[in-house]
Amino acid sequence: MIIQLTNGSQRLTLSTRGATIFDWDPGIGTSVLDGYRSLAEQEENDGFRNAVLAPWSNRTEDATWDDDGVARSTLGLTNAEGLHGLVWSAEFEVVSETWPDGVVDYEIIGDHIELATTIPDSPAYPGPVDVRVRYDISDSGKLGVRIAARNAGGREIPVALGWHPYVRVEMAKAHLQLAATHAIVTDDRLLPLPGEKAFRALEKGLDRLSREISLDPDLDTGFTGLGVDRGWATAHLDTGLGYEVEMSMKVDNGVGRPNFHVFTGAPLKRDPLKSLALEPCLTMANMLNRSEEKARVMVQPGETRTLEVEVVVR
């Protein structure tokens, strides 16, 4: 189902499949996010456009992981690369809304929407895990994103969350500034190298809060060691389209290795290099197979892990 949320001049369009944003106009007359244009295009899943990533983000080596001696395979539920968790294709329900029978498309006049689904227990991943996604457009020019995953099972489990938005850019004119100390180094499968080899120190700039990230067409890299101001890490993107986007992620330094994963979208089937994936993630790729990282993101029964993101257009 397609839903349009309208608040004054702001408009947010999303699909209940994956709780996935299709577009967001913050009141400037055009969408800042480059999402799927139809349910049919979403079904093809080219690029995981604006996908919610839970209970892990990015790649899992060979789509398998060791769960305390139990070999688990995500094949059949994700893809050959174990990409992006288990909810991007799940059907979500809108919380506290009454839906008329037979409605295909629906418009809501309001400033927020919340959707929910449950990841069941399976051979791929121990559940159940209750996932809620809230989008908020109550403030002009600002999108609030809150992804929460509650461990509804009877044992501790690894839970790390992410979001995969594509911001429209003119790549030749775009500039990305990011407070980070290290780039995550990967092999030819885009899996982080073992141990500390996975972290390459970035050259020191004059201002740690304004280090520019080169937007090479082949860029598909996570940046970590994030600078934190009052609990938030922020990326600044001049889109080259006449407006700037500021994306902030709430960071708990005790949970995972937070990073902004940056992907230029060169392999996309539609409009390659026309948008930049700027992905706030609570942990790095292949978390399920890195013991030190998995230990950081364990969630006890009844507890909830949350990713909070704010996107501001200036």
TrEMBL record:
<dbReference type="GO" id="GO:0030246">
    <property type="term" value="F:carbohydrate binding"/>
</dbReference>
<dbReference type="GO" id="GO:0005975">
    <property type="term" value="P:carbohydrate metabolic process"/>
</dbReference>
<protein>
    <submittedName>
        <fullName>Aldose 1-epimerase</fullName>
    </submittedName>
</protein>
<dbReference type="InterPro" id="IPR014718">
    <property type="entry name" value="GH-type_carb-bd"/>
</dbReference>
<dbReference type="InterPro" id="IPR011013">
    <property type="entry name" value="Gal_mutarotase_sf_dom"/>
</dbReference>
<dbReference type="InterPro" id="IPR008183">
    <property type="entry name" value="Aldose_1/G6P_1-epimerase"/>
</dbReference>
<dbReference type="GO" id="GO:0016853">
    <property type="term" value="F:isomerase activity"/>
</dbReference>
<dbReference type="Pfam" id="PF01263">
    <property type="entry name" value="Aldose_epim"/>
</dbReference>
